[in-house]
Specification:
With 515 residues, the chain is α+β, with helices and mostly antiparallel strands. The chain has 18 helices and 23 strands. A hairpin with a 5-residue loop joins β22 and β23.
Amino acid sequence: MANQEDDFKKVISHAKEYGYVVQSSEIYDGLSAVYDYAQNGAELKKNIRDYWWRAMVQLHENIVGIDAAIFMHPTTWKASGHVDAFNDPLIDNKDSKKRYRADVLIEDFAAKLEAKAEKEIAKAAKRFGDAFDREQFVSTNLRVLKYREQADEVLTRMARSLESEDLADVKALIEELEIACPISGSRNWTDVKQFNLMFGTRLGATADSSMEVYLRPETAQGIFVNFLNVQKSGRMKIPFGIAQVGKAFRNEIVARQFIFRMREFEQMEMQFFIRPGEQKKWYEYWKDARMKWHLSLGMGESEYRFHDHEKLAHYADAAADIEFRFPFGFKELEGIHSRTDFDLANHEKYSGKKLQYFDPELGEHYVPYVVETSIGLDRMFLAVFSNSLREETLEDGTTRTVLRLPAVLAPVKAAVLPLVKKDGLPELAHEIIEELRWEFMVQYDEKDAIGRRYRRQDAAGTPFCITVDHQTLEDRTVTLRYRDSMEQKRVPINSLSGEIHREVDVKEWLKKASV
């Protein structure tokens, strides 16, 4: 666990040093669990958002996008169940006076058991080398089976207790597992209580005429209340989807793990409207499609896994998470949920307006069912960033820090470097920049020796370095250096655009998701 913590600290430190993520209002000592995206972070975030939007909206004839307001009529949240049921189980430690989410304490306990199992597997893999059969070892090793069985039992019991709102049993489980406060080591706990996560505020000019409204805790409801507007104006036929990217807000009890769990965050969601009875088919379809999208980025199949929910939300009849191996273990990255007709039926009931679809093939009206895909943009950012950060030992024994971002997402695609700051090389470098910036984010860098500049761009995640030298003046060729392989080759200036396109073209990357 200590090693994981060290790795995570390096991620946070690197994100700040290279202009990706910084603490919000840092000059005033910051605001807990609120972060700002700096110059490189804003670009990476935009590129992830665009990569999702293209895959979800541009490449699907039957999916369109909207941008709904953050403020919504307060009855929206009554209809959605958030006013009554959007709670987290809260527990306080009497000695440290610190507040925790009870379910997170239990999940962390289960994660430690999983980490012990992984340690046994890693030891065996080292011992047996190439002859190691992971699948056979995992299914037969008694220690691994015991750790995993215990973790499953703990999570299953917690899910049942939360589902039945048996908060006394959640506390009993924490006590039975002898879970201690991470700060004080004390096991002196209060009872578990429910805590509503919505931020409330007032809308109106005076106290008398104002109404209580909420900062939306999710973006999905903006899609549901616009179902008919989009369906009619777009003449959409079922099945069809509505996608949205936007901010959401949750007053988290314990916001932690950098940008993994924040109070202000961004979601990329798509609600897919279908005939009742077809939810299983579309649920499986979207599980498969979304995993392919993730794998298209080339971060490694072993970094992802599906986790089927034991505890289903009040609106769902099936739910699974795509989990990613973050520096602190496997955690939820994206949710795929079969939401039935809960949302539209409830909005119909509370608004008194019909939210139905006339199916010409069946000749009948019905409230559509919904399959949702929901991914946190900030979590996706953290997944990409943390997975890409490497310390590498080179052939000559030196080391380099490299941010191996998928080239399609990298904030800056190429840095143009004049070998020296004279002889007309900076002017020629700027000419190249002027030509390339119509298509790519590019950067000029002339400070320090060329080797140090290469290292700086490696650490910043730039896929290409273009070096302008004296030979460039003679034959208009430059040295093109690849970040990942460090390979260098001479390329004519007029071929640079094509070379960069080959590596960063969205079409080529997304094609992998459709295979």
